[in-house]
Amino acid sequence: MNAQLLQAAQLAWSPNLRVTRAEGDCATVLRRPASTLVGSSLHSVLGITQERARELDARAREDRRAVEFVSTSPGGPPATYLRLVLGMDGEEASCGLLDLGAVLEGAPPVQISRLSSSLSHEIRNPLSSVKMAVQTLARNTGLSDRDKRRLTIANREIRTMERMLWLLSEYGREGAANLDSHPLRSVVQEATAMVAPELAERRIEVDVKEEADLPRVRVDPNRLRPVLAQVLLNVAMGLPEEGRVQVTLRQAAPGQVSLILDDPAAALPPEEKGTLFDPFGSRLARGAGLSLAALRRVMTGVGGEVAAEGSAEPGMVFTLTFAA
User: What residues does the Histidine kinase domain cover (predicted)?
Assistant: First the structure.
């Protein structure tokens, strides 16, 4: 769990809208220590207009535990969004504050979470029918070479759509991971097999180097395989034909095992460093723009971590760390 989910602050203020009490994790939520907030005006503490501060004060004095949301920039850009629960604390107006950016960090948008499963289901059914029709046509021995090539392209695009639906479904999934002990090399090999036709078209191989006596890892292979498969394919698509995707499995810190994936063709522009694992936040996140975001979701779900190192120059390294 993200530790920031538990971080909140509490403010109280006088009728002239001066803060009389500041408690909790004000340094994180409001970007200023609590000791510096007392005596300051409410609007300056929250980074809002005086008119908006008066509106919040009026809602608080109704004492109905009203919930309000404000866009705030108390310490200057960038702005953040706060959830305020307003009410009376004795004779003082007060509010509890929660930083929505911290709460939602790494979590899917509500719309994706709610719609992904039903949307995937609705699209999978007709897609399966199309897939069966294409495979039936491909068995016709009287096809011309041109028609065979067309059906090969159709099959490839169908597989692409299936992976995109997997990523959409995985990114929005809310259920707990089904953890078990597995050899990490086997999981990588199974993920590779899922994109074997695409790799074969470009004559690209996945080269796995494994450290001796590597312990098993705790993972949900059913959730990791399709996401890792898309990431491997992303790397492969940046390589020349007959290239090799390099994967290294080794012992990390005590009780941890790392999967290190080299991407020699990818670069990480400075403006994308903060959004690399956000949905649609990076040009590297091919496959509906969700491959890296879904990978982080899966790794978080199994108690692991994913990190990336790179610069504006080609050459990136992804590191997935699992509990042994």
Answer: 118-324
Pairing label, strands 244-251, 205-210: parallel
Cross-strand partners of 235: none
Is 264 in a helix, a strand, or coil? coil
d(CA 221, CA 214): 17
Structural domains in the chain, sorted by start: 3-104 (3.30.450.20), 110-323 (3.30.565.10)
**CA–CA separation, 116 vs 119, rounded Å?**
5
Residue with tokens 């011309």: 144
Listed range (8-22, 105-119, 260-274, 296-310) with the worst mean pLDDT:
105-119
Q: Give the tens place of pLDDT for each residue, 31-73.
A: 889 999 999 999 999 988 899 999 999 999 998 888 888 877 6
> Are 79 and 72 a contacting pair, CB within 8 Å?
yes
Tell me if residue 283 falls in helix, strand or coil: coil
pLDDT tens readout for residues 186-225: 999 999 999 999 999 889 999 999 999 999 999 988 889 9
21, 10 contact by CB (below 8 A): yes
Angle at 217 between CA 212 and CA 218, to 5 degrees: 175
Which residues make beta-bridge pairs with 319? Answer: 260, 307
Q: Quick count: other Cβ atoms within 10 Å of Cβ 294?
A: 29
Neighbours of 43 (CB within 10 A): 19
Give the bridge partners for 237, in sequence order: none
